[in-house]
Specification:
Blueprint lengths: L1 H15 L2 H44 L1
């Protein structure tokens, strides 16, 4: 019974600690920023590829 009470006290103490919460939040923010950068560059790359293809087609047709 004493072991169970000690285990419950340790669990309550663990739930009340907030030391790691900030690190987790910063990690989530950094990963979201990374995903936004990847999505933005992918979209920009796709649009640039389409523009260069149009330019190349126009130049090839003019020659």
């Amino acid at each position: 019974m004493i072991y169970l009470q000690s285990l419950l006290d340790d669990f309550k103490s663990f739930l009340q600690q907030e030391d790691g919460v900030t690190a987790i939040e910063y990690g989530l923010i950094a990963s979201l920023i990374g995903l936004a950068i990847i999505a933005g560059t992918t979209l920009l790359g796709t649009n640039l590829n389409a523009k260069f293809t149009t330019i190349a087609t126009t130049i090839a047709a003019a020659i």
